[in-house]
Amino acid sequence: MLVFAPVPALPALSGEEIMRRVEDRDAGSAVQALVSMELVDRRGATSSRILEGYGAEDADGLRRMVIVFHRPASVQDTRFLVIENPDRDDDQWIYLPALRRVRRIAAGEGGDSFMGTDFTYDDLQSRSVDDDRHELLREERRNGYDCYVVESIPRDLDGAQYSRRVQWIPRDIWVPIRIEFYDKRGNLLKVNSVEKLEQVQGYWTPVKSAMKNEQTGHATHLEVQRIQYDGNLPDALFTTRFLETGRAR
């Protein structure tokens, strides 16, 4: 005799559990990408840039990132470095060719625009799940993906750039495809949207995305032209000496 017993429903994930899966997803031990960038103002005027990005984990699993601008001539050889710290803000430095020196980004500059884009220096820092309180608002389908919608509110609201963030996170992919950023007054400030998500070497990769400032109408569009995961990137690449010289030796 066949007995059909009801299958118990799996417990729903909490907002914090979802964000830990985002934080812990496998993004490769190293990555190198060539990226085209287009800045668009509210009147539709555009300017284009070409940059290269490098990222890798150190021996302790902390992330390091370098961005090198190649074109146009006005930003060529500008180099930017981020070193993740486990218990304090990340270290950030920038090399500006016109000044011929490396400058550390101060904590008070976190809300400033990075190179005229719609990203701030704080946007380029790592952010721990423990820095925020997370709530699962709902589940909904967006852009063909079944998504968790999670609201994240900073525990230290006074020291945070945004009052809250709302993220759309596809199940089993764990790469946000939309992030809404709200200012200190609670108004929508910026939206980061992934327009094209692909698997590259087994890693889910936003190959086309945009950050738009909803209050100014300015937007920054990014498109990956070439990307390579799990290559051998030298430690010397992630140093202020590389910023100064452009040589990872």
CATH architecture: Clam
Question: Quick one: overall form?
Answer: globular
Measured distance between first and last alpha carbons: 73 Å
Strand-pairing-aware structural class = mainly beta
Q: Which blocks of ≥5 consecutive residues have pLDDT under 50?
A: none
Question: Can you give the helix content as a percent range?
Answer: under 10%
Overall radius of gyration? 20 Å
Task: Please report the total strand number as a whole number.
Answer: 13
| Cross-sheet strand order for the largest sheet | 6-5-4-3-2-1-13-12-11-10-9-8-7
Summarize the helix and strand pattern as letters.
Answer: HEEEEEEEEEEEEEH
- Average pLDDT value? 94
Helices, by number, come to 2
Integer count of domains: 1
CATH secondary-structure class: Mainly Beta
Biggest sheet architecture: 13 strands, antiparallel
Beta-strand portion reads over 45%
Assign the CATH topology: outer membrane lipoprotein receptor (LolB), chain A
